[in-house]
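Dear Dr. H.,

I hope your travels went smoothly. While you were away I took the liberty of generating a structure for the chain from your last submission, since the lab meeting agenda had it listed for discussion. I wanted you to have the full record in hand beforehand rather than looking at slides cold. The sequence, exactly as received, is reproduced here:
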Amino acid sequence: MSLKGLQKAAIRAPQLFKAKYNLGENTKDAVYIDSERRFQELETETKKLHDESKKYFDAINGMLTHQIEFSKAIQEIYKPISGRVSDPDSAIPEGNPEGIRACEEYETIVRELQATLAPELEMIEQRVIAPADELLTVIKAVRKMTVKRQHKQLDYDRRRATFKKLQDKKEKSLKDEKAMYKAESDVEQATQEFNYFNDLLKDELPKLFHLEREFIRPLFQSFYYMQLNVFYTLHERMQSIDIGYFDLTQEVEGAFGKQRGDIQDQVEQLTIVHFKATGGKKPARFGGDGKLAIEGKSPSAVSRRRSNESLSSPPPPYSSSISSVLNGSSSSSMARANSTGSSWGAAAKAKGAAPPPPKPKPSRLAGAHTGPTAIALYDYEAQAEGDLSFITGDVIEITQKGATENEWWSGKLRGREGQFPGKLLHLVCC
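The corresponding predicted structure, in token form, is as follows:
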């Protein structure tokens, strides 16, 4: 927009605000309002006609292209997957030679069909899309005329309001008389300009509507017949396909079932298609000072990872050592021997034999724990600040038990207190 246009827009802004919220006197022409509404519908539908015809053109081209790419993908799947030179069986075809040949024949047919339909699709672009573009160009020119008429109406209402304000003034000075004379002249000029554009649009918009119907009629007819040609060509060519790989004498579902056989059952028997997370043992990580690595991290650098999947998955069967601990036939030190492969065991071996445990204090001095206890079924490494690490066989004093074993519990072990998943423990005393 030019500088002059910005100045005019600023001058018209107050009157535009009044017209938008129906303040003061605003010119309204019922005939033009109805014509302008119909023109707006015409503008919207013409744009939709152009867009939809273009989408149809792209869809037919895209459909044929996708058919070719689909055939290529199937062909790659059918090809042999063995290519090792050292493999004596690498020369044996592991793929589907008949399927590969069928894919090649199908791709050739679709490419021929794409070349056959190219002239029909070009006619759609020339006889439907291009005329719709021309109609949009005409509508854009008419839209500029309606905007011009709106500006002239704003000027007309603004000039009238100024003149009426001066005319209603009781005591007029010489300056007011000169201003009123100029305002009257401006009103006359604004009236002529507004009436010109208003009458022009009221007279010619109905003619445009009639011509638009006549303009659309051949477009629709051409589009209909070109669609028939496209569908007839597709049907005729696809119906004449004679690829021995396909059995066209059966129903679709029957042929699918015959080709598929019991492949689904064989796939379901493979172990790798059934992914199930288990609570396996994880070795503890130590820092340079022998402490757990997680204990040296700041709270801001640690985020709690509470995976519902790992908690909800069933644990592996109990080991023999855990069973003996549960039956009371061995101490927690024997159960801890099962985790000698972990970092805890490696650290213990590096330090040598552990000193004998101290004698237990009398109950009146030790403040023995009278609450529930639990035995660790798996190793657990602290994942965040406030977690409690333990290894298989540790006896943990439970300080706060969750409603279910799938929640986080709190407990004490060797003077440390923290949280841990209840799923990893076996409650032996409630």
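Two observations you may find useful: The first helix runs from residue 3 to 20. Residues 284-313, 318-345 have pLDDT under 50 and may be disordered.

With kind regards,
E. W.
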